[in-house]
């Protein structure tokens, strides 16, 4: 049933887009936080997932507030370990942020109600919510951002993942597909909106609002059903500064336009 569900999601998505506990005092997350980053393109059927990871990686790499960087690709180009699921698990297990550090994990690919699909694995594996919760344990107690861009990715909006020191963004509600996984596009709709919003904001709250509105407008414009991206913020986490901000004359944004 899970494989059938993801295949339906893949076909529906492609056809549509082709036509058009820590305490708060322990967090101390601000513009000086150093980030351990894992970006993973877990789908190998379209280039949209690899495109996003490649391009977002270029925005982050080389900045002084990036403590470590792992870039994973499911496409068959030797950049993905023999087992994608175990490779992702190993990558997250090595994060272990210290005081003044945090985790940023972004997963993009296909999904089902069971979770995001490691579609390069044979047989196909799914990162179920309980498995992802365990994978994120090394980041527990430190500021953590989890972004999951996939159909049905709202399945991760549950206690154990939505902790008080975390921000969780998903491309859709738990019972809905998301759109844009087509070779005719550079990114999926959600990933495109994320990339467009990134240079316009200096904190995660404004970024998330922009992404949700952008996805809504894109789907409405093209007469697609709503995917209803989900957002969770732990207490006081909306104002958490984005990593890799470029210094600029405007101290309110620190962005270069």
Structure characterization notes:
There is one protein chain. Helix 5 (about 190-195) crosses helix 6 (about 205-220). The longest helix has 18 residues, at about 1-20. This protein has a 6-stranded mixed β-sheet with strand order 2-1-3-7-8-9, with helices on both faces. A 3-stranded antiparallel β-sheet has the order 4-5-6. The model is unreliable at about 15-30 and about 250-255 (pLDDT under 50). The protein has 6 helices and 9 strands, in the order αβαβαββββαββααβ. It is about 30% helix and about 20% strand.
What secondary-structure arrangement, pairings included, does this model have?
Elements: H1 2-19, E1 34-41, H2 47-60, E2 66-73, H3 84-93, E3 101-108, E4 111-112, E5 115-118, E6 125-127, H4 129-135, E7 144-149, E8 166-170, H5 189-197, H6 204-221, E9 230-233
Parallel strand pairs: 1-2, 1-3, 3-7, 7-8
Antiparallel strand pairs: 4-5, 5-6, 8-9
Outline of this structure?
The chain has 6 helices and 9 strands. With 257 residues, it is of the alpha/beta class.
Q: What percent of residues adopt helix (DSSP H or I)?
A: 25-40%
In the CATH hierarchy, the third-tier topology is known as Rossmann fold
* Mean pLDDT value: 85
Strand order of the largest sheet: 2-1-3-7-8-9
- Which term fits the overall shape? globular
Main pleated sheet: 6 strands, mixed
Which architecture does the CATH hierarchy give at level 2?
3-Layer(aba) Sandwich
CA-based gyration radius? 17 Å
Low-confidence stretches: 14-28, 248-257
Give, in order, the helices and strands: HEHEHEEEEHEEHHE
Strand content: 15-25%
Q: What is the terminal separation in angstroms? A: 47 Å
The CATH class label is: Alpha Beta
Query: If helices are DSSP runs of H or I spanning 4 or more residues, what is the number of helices?
Result: 6
**What's the β-strand tally?**
9
Secondary structural class: alpha/beta
* Integer tally of domains: 1
């Amino acid at each position: 049933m899970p494989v059938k569900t993801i295949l339906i999601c893949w076909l529906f998505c492609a056809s549509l887009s082709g036509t058009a506990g820590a305490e708060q005092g322990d967090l101390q997350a601000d513009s000086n936080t150093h980030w351990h980053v894992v970006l993973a393109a877990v789908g190998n059927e379209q280039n949209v997932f690899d495109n996003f990871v490649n391009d977002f990686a270029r925005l982050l790499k080389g900045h002084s507030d990036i403590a470590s960087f792992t870039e994973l690709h499911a496409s068959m180009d030797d950049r993905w370990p023999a087992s994608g699921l175990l490779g992702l698990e190993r990558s997250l297990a090595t994060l272990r942020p210290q005081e003044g550090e945090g985790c940023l994990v972004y997963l993009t690919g296909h999904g089902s109600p069971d979770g995001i699909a490691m579609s390069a694995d044979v047989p196909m594996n799914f990162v179920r919510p309980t498995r992802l919760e365990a994978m994120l344990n090394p980041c527990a107690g430190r500021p953590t951002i989890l972004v999951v861009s996939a159909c049905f990715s709202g399945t991760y909006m549950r206690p154990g993942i939505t902790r008080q020191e975390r921000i969780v963004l998903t491309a859709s509600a738990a019972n809905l597909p998301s759109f844009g996984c087509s070779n005719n596009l550079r990114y999926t709709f959600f990933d495109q909106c994320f990339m467009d919003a990134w240079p316009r904001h200096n904190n995660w709250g404004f970024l998330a609002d922009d992404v949700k509105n952008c996805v809504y407008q894109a789907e409405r414009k093209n007469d697609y059903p709503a995917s209803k991206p989900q957002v969770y913020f732990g207490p006081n986490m909306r104002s958490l500064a984005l990593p890799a901000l470029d210094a600029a004359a405007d101290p309110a944004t620190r962005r270069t336009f």
